[in-house]
Design goal:
The complex is a heterodimer. Chain A is built from nine helices and two strands. Chain A is mainly α. Chain A has a single domain, classed as Arp2/3 complex 21 kDa subunit ARPC3, CATH 1.10.1760. Chain A has a two-stranded antiparallel sheet. By secondary structure, chain B is mainly alpha-helical. Chain B folds into two domains: about 160 residues, no CATH class; about 70 residues, no CATH class. Chain B is about 70% helix and about 5% strand. Chain B contains ten helices and three strands; from the N terminus they run αααααβββααααα. A three-stranded antiparallel sheet of chain B has the order 1-3-2. In chain B, helix 5 packs antiparallel against helix 6 and helix 8 packs across helix 9. Classes of the chains: A mainly alpha, B mainly alpha. At the A-B interface, helix 1, helix 2, helix 3, strand 1 and helix 5 of A face helix 2, helix 5, strand 1, helix 6 and helix 8 of B.
Chain lengths: ~240, ~260
């Protein structure tokens, strides 16, 4: 059974690498989900988005500058997800940025910013879609950031070096996003294993790449902008 | 950036965004609700024609945008169509994978895959009717009229504006690094990309500071209010909704009859 799975995975991987997909694999494209699932995921997202919205509202009421800064952070997330990061096999992919976002802005604010960024990506770049917005928000703006933030906070508390905590937060956040996406598609079409094996083989190297990148980013930020980072935690 | 450039050039630019949103969502939902490949293709075609003839977009441009989600949809459809099969199952085509596992295509899976693919292409095309004819600023005004929370719409407007600032900065840094061989090899690419991301982030923060100072010195009290500009009413778009929805339904019905 185990061998059949690996061989199946290898075959799927070969088929996929031929077509070299990874640019928009993390987004569920418009129209891929039937209506009950599409609206179901939207409903699941509502409490998280509402909680994020009220936390932002509170911050903005305290300090009007927070709004402008949060907007800058949202735009940063959009630009980040449009960059191509180098990956181990010489292929390129887009970072999800969920780890960086969650560590810098906290998971609840990331949810709202993620919603806006995903909306723009759907409308401006056709990555993702309007009916699948709920499912995409759930995987990329809720599960990813919460996992990242949990891993980061947990490892910090356990006394790990911050580079290690950042690496695992970003890599696992990225990976969990893909796992959730494959589950969302697999539940509908009954082919979990295929989606998971495609994503596992193409995404594990990318998750590692994103982890490494996030560590590099963090080192630079720690070196040159202690003050801004501190201000952000106040935010 | 993406569809945005073309939205400003659209002939429907001055039409009220509300009917455009309604029409786009109506046919989008129609395409997604009906489990039918033909209705999807009908939606694809009608949104394409709307974009070309009333929006005044070049067919080549619309075609280019339709190609973007194509790869992902093809992969998605392929994983639905091509599946491992039990030994005794009926199949249109099947082969042995490495001599041991039977993979193949059944009529049922093929139909499901085609339906999902066509339905998704129809839905994407319907979404393009909105995004290729409505600039984001107009969309934000419309959302405000639809009582989306003010803070949310303001964040959207600000983020939209800042995206252009930051992607310009990112592009400049990238060119500077690339021209100095900053992306040769994996280690060096990582280093350069890390520097790029952190610098863009710092610029974003500092720019945010300056934008806030500029706003405050002009009497900013916590919200950015603008007046909507006068729009053409575009009632004919509302009239088009039932026509296209009926078209989808009729095509769906025909497909059903033809298949059974």
């Amino acid at each position: 059974m185990k061998r059949s799975l690996t061989i199946r995975a290898a075959a799927v991987f070969a088929a996929v690498s031929l077509l070299s997909v990874n640019a928009s694999a993390m987004h569920i494209a418009e129209g891929m989900l039937p209506v009950p699932w599409a609206f179901g995921w939207m409903a699941v997202c509502v409490p998280f988005v509402a909680a994020g919205f009220f936390s932002i509202k509170k911050k903005v009421a305290l300090d009007a500058k927070a709004k402008v800064l949060l907007a800058m952070c949202g735009a940063f997330a959009f630009v980040l997800s449009a960059l191509k990061i180098p990956s181990v096999f010489g292929s390129c992919s887009h970072p999800t940025g969920v780890g960086l976002g969650a560590i810098l802005f906290g998971p609840t604010a990331t949810t709202v910013l993620g919603l806006i960024v995903l909306l723009f990506q759907a409308l401006l770049l056709a990555h993702g879609g309007l009916t699948t917005l709920g499912a995409n928000v759930f995987s990329m703006a809720i599960v990813g950031p919460f996992v990242s933030y949990g891993v980061y906070a947990g490892l910090k508390k356990a006394g790990c070096k911050s580079a290690i905590a950042v690496f695992f937060a970003a890599a696992l956040g990225d990976l969990m996003t893909y796992v959730v996406t494959s589950i969302q598609l697999g539940v509908v079409y009954g082919n979990f294993a295929e989606y998971l094996s495609i994503f596992a083989l193409t995404q594990i190297p990318l998750a590692i790449a994103e982890g490494l990148l996030t560590v590099v980013v963090f080192n630079v930020l720690e070196k040159y902008s202690k003050e801004e980072l501190r201000a952000l935690h106040v935010l | 950036m993406g569809t945005d450039r073309y939205a400003y050039l659209s002939r429907l630019r001055d039409v009220d965004p509300a009917p455009k949103i309604v029409l786009s969502f109506a046919i989008l939902l129609g395409a997604v609700v009906l489990p039918s490949a033909a209705a999807g293709l009908f939606t694809l075609l009608s949104a394409f024609l709307l974009n070309v003839f009333s929006g005044g977009q070049k067919p080549r441009v619309v075609g280019h945008f339709l190609k973007i989600p194509l790869v992902f949809l093809l992969i998605g459809a392929l994983t639905i169509v091509l599946r491992p099969l039990p030994q005794e199952a009926q199949a249109i085509w099947s082969g042995m994978l490495l001599g041991r596992w039977r993979w193949g295509i059944t009529a049922e899976q093929l139909r499901l895959g085609l339906t999902v693919f066509c339905r998704a292409m129809g839905a994407v095309s319907a979404m393009y009717f909105l995004s290729l004819n409505t600039p984001m600023t107009d969309l934000a005004t419309a959302l405000r009229r639809l009582h989306v929370p003010k803070l949310f719409v303001e964040l959207m407007e600000l983020i939209y504006r800042f995206i252009f600032l930051l992607s310009d900065a990112a592009r400049q840094i990238h060119i500077a690094q690339d021209s100095r061989l900053g992306y040769e090899g994996f280690r060096r690419s990582m280093h350069s990309m890390g520097a790029l991301v952190s610098m863009v982030f710092l610029r974003a923060l500092r720019r945010g500071d300056r934008v806030f100072a500029a706003l405050e010195s002009r009497g900013y009290t916590g919200s950015l209010d603008t007046l909507p500009k006068p729009y053409a009413p575009g009632r004919w778009l509302y009239a088009l909704c039932p026509v296209l929805l009926a078209g989808q339904a009729v095509i769906f019905y025909w497909e059903r009859r033809w298949l059974s």
